[in-house]
Design brief:
It is a single chain. The chain is α/β, with parallel strands linked by helices. Helices cover about 40% and strands about 15% of the residues. The protein contains 13 helices and 12 strands. A 7-stranded mixed beta sheet has the order 2-8-7-6-5-3-4, with helices on both faces. Helix 1 (about 15-25) packs antiparallel against helix 8 and helix 2 (about 35-55) runs parallel beside helix 8. It is globular. The two termini are about 25 Å apart. The structure holds pyridoxal-5'-phosphate (PLP). Pyridoxal-5'-phosphate binds near residues 101, 103, 152, 180 and 201. Pyridoxal-5'-phosphate (PLP) binds near residues 69, 101 and 201.
Length: about 375
């Protein structure tokens, strides 16, 4: 089996899984319980929060645990946004980049129903935010800006330092960064001190599923997302998924340690894969400047889904441009925003790697690209 669908999800790392099992079995007590077992669980929870805050260079009370990236992104546009607009009642414009994940884009209709004015900031043909357009959109009425760090469909790296520069002296604008796809190669982007809110998801970096987080800087207000027993400073109630949280902290530390050395390795793999695709006349949408772990390409007029199954016949697992789009025959929003016509984007596939991808995996993938291309007479 050759797995190249790491942007959809990653296989849990064995050491991380061992930590998960140990915590689940040994520290099963509820961290809110008053007895000694509860105390031990609470200490472990605090420790995980502190480890994550050190990695992300924030305070531990700025780390909030959620169940996934989707939940973190929803919280930003619900509890956080409503608290911001209470603080700034005269500001109701939100700017969202055109290539955000559906967990943000699909909130737009209800944002508009709640009275917010949503502006979409375009991207250029490489899928990178148009900074001039952003400058034009930013104004007195802007309350929230949401951008990505790394795009999930084509891997384009967003110019976070330049976006931060556009926000100089505009402290009334809260800036959210969806960092879900950035841990594998671009973790350092998330450390920019101007970022107010960051969403992450454990299953994208070899931890177990069902855990995510929202970094919310102390200066940013929030209303609760879930009401209940008062966990997470009463902002996100629900008994904590301690095993998942501790496993996530460990996996994040391992990813951060590995990403410096994995980057050049992944860059070499990417060059090799792109060279094979180009030789076989594929249209490649990923440039050398994109994240090392994602490659998007098409072989029109063959539909992406047909290509995915053709690779699968050789035990190579890839996806159409996102896991969400794969089964629902959705259009490829990022390619559309980049100006790629539908007859080409319908043929798009995504090859995504991780620190666990090996030289052998890549050699096999390249062989299979050759046979699949041949199968479709290219
Ligand atoms: N944001 C981005 C950029 C993603 O790629 C994904 C998932 O693919 C999400 C958010 C949603 O994360 P989760 O699957 O943890 O809900």
């Amino acid at each position: 089996m050759y797995y190249f669908d790491n942007s959809a999800t990653t296989q849990p790392n064995e050491e991380v899984l061992a930590t998960f099992s140990k915590v689940a079995m040994t520290y099963f007590a509820n961290p809110s319980s008053a007895h000694q077992l509860g105390d031990s669980a609470r200490r472990l929870l605090d420790q995980a929060r502190q480890q994550i805050s050190q990695l992300l260079r924030c305070e531990s009370h700025e780390v909030y645990f959620t169940s996934c990236g989707t939940e973190s992104n929803n919280w930003v546009f619900q509890g956080v946004l409503d608290a911001l607009s209470q603080r700034h009642p005269d500001r109701h414009q939100i700017i969202i980049s055109a290539i955000e994940h559906p967990s943000i884009m699909n909130q737009i209709p209800q944002l508009e129903k709640r009275g917010y004015i949503v502006e979409i900031c375009p991207v250029n043909e490489q899928g990178i935010l148009d900074l001039e357009a952003l400058q034009q959109l930013i104004g007195e009425k802007t309350v929230l800006l949401s951008t990505m760090a790394v795009n999930n469909e084509v891997g384009s790296i967003q110019p976070l330092a330049e976006i931060a520069a556009c926000l100089t002296n505009l402290t009334h604008i809260t800036w959210h960064v969806d960092g879900v796809q950035s841990v594998t190669t671009q973790f350092d982007l998330l450390l920019h001190p101007r970022i107010d809110l960051i969403s992450l998801s454990s299953h994208k970096f070899h931890a177990t599923r069902g855990t995510g987080l929202l970094i919310k800087k102390e200066r940013i207000p929030a209303f609760p997302l879930l009401w209940g027993g008062g966990q997470e400073e009463a902002l996100r109630s629900g008994t904590e998924n301690l095993a998942g949280i501790v496993a996530m902290a460990k996996a994040l530390r391992m990813s951060v340690e590995q990403h410096v050395q994995a980057k050049p390795q992944l860059a070499t793999y990417k060059q090799q894969i792109i060279a094979t695709l180009i030789e076989k006349h594929w249209q490649v949408f990923s440039s050398e400047h994109d994240s090392e772990h994602i490659i998007c390409a098409a072989l029109p007029p063959i539909p992406g889904e047909v290509l995915v199954h053709a690779f699968e016949a050789h035990a190579v697992y890839i996806s159409t441009t996102s896991a969400c789009a794969s089964r629902k025959h959705q259009t490829h929003a990022t390619l559309h925003a980049m100006g790629i016509p539908a007859n080409v984007s319908n043929s798009a596939i995504r090859i995504s790697m991780s620190h666990a991808t090996t030289k052998n995996d890549v050699a096999q993938l390249c062989k299979v690209i050759e046979s699949v291309s041949q199968q479709f007479n290219k």
